[in-house]
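Now produce a polypeptide, keeping tokens residue-aligned:
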Amino acid sequence: MRAPGISMLLSWVATLSQLTSSGAHKGRIVGGQEAKPHSYPFMVSIQYHGEHICGGSLIRPQWVLTAAHCEVFKEPTVFQVVLGVHSLITPESTQQVFGILRAVPYPLFNAQADINDIQLLKLNGSALLTDSVKTARLPQWNTLVLPGTQCWICGWGDIPGQEDPTTVLMEAEVVVTAQPACNSSWRGSINQDMVCTSGAEKGRLQGFCGGDSGGPLICHGRLLGVVSFSSRTCGDPRYPDVYTRVSTFMAWIHDVLQHY
């Protein structure tokens, strides 16, 4: 498994095709439904020249949490972050648009091994908190999420079998998978800093698939995971979706927020 670099992300923007790399996809919602507008007010769209490439979560008025494999840190000034958005093509008065002042990936991020896949983005201004723009609730340090826990994911993008990408925010219910079973499916690639989920409906493909990398895994109302990687067949229950476990990195998150 290998996280896609910025050139692959920008190639996806140009072709509107799914992101793939060494058999792994990077985030799009499969087997879900349209979310109620602004029901995930912390959700952001990270865009390159007006095209959505990654998701993320507003955690402070000037900070967004996303995946390191989005590689915004290589050229942060060419990206923008859109808050308060439901439709990617319909103008909304709720939207707030910011540039990126600084990108801070976790220092031990390893794209080859898909580990420590987390990154903070400092916006070039502070968001105005409204009913449509709010910060996500973060977990306590090292909080565990038990197998069988029902959670939600959300994001924008194409759905397998449809020619055109969706333009509205989609959501799907997922269930946390036991780590030993997930690790077995992924042949030993899963560690304690990751969370795995499978679809809530057995026999149906549900999960993410190529374009909402960095989006949130919400369990019990808190941001417990960041979309990292999944199998080539999106939502395949044989290969659970994998997220970076946010609680592992809470000390680092607080340190960055305080010192940058």
User: Anything to note?
Assistant: Residues 1-28 have pLDDT under 50 and may be disordered.
